Q: What sequence folds into this?
């Protein structure tokens, strides 16, 4: 999973730690960050959710039709030898 890329304004390091975090509104948060590299920079960061998309899921009848053992669903499947 990706992270938000915020860097220290003094040394450019990405080693930042969140000291405090408070919710301003339902969609925004204010955080106080400190640089773990130079120990000289304190940053106040305000982040907000600016857009939301919700996926639409549909039932797949085709996927549910396969009702047999896995080794019978694909003729190209190789037999795995076991001891």
A:
């Amino acid at each position: 999973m990706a992270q938000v890329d915020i860097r220290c304004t003094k040394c450019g390091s990405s080693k930042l730690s969140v000291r405090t975090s408070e919710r301003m509104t339902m969609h925004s948060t204010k955080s106080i960050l400190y640089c773990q590299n130079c120990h000289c920079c304190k940053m106040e960061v305000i982040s907000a959710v600016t857009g939301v998309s919700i996926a639409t899921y549909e039932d797949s009848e085709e996927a549910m039709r396969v009702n047999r053992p896995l080794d019978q669903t694909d003729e190209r499947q190789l037999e795995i030898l076991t001891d």
Summary: The first helix runs from residue 61 to 65. Residues 51 and 73 are 42 Å apart (CA to CA). The two ends are 39 Å apart (CA to CA).
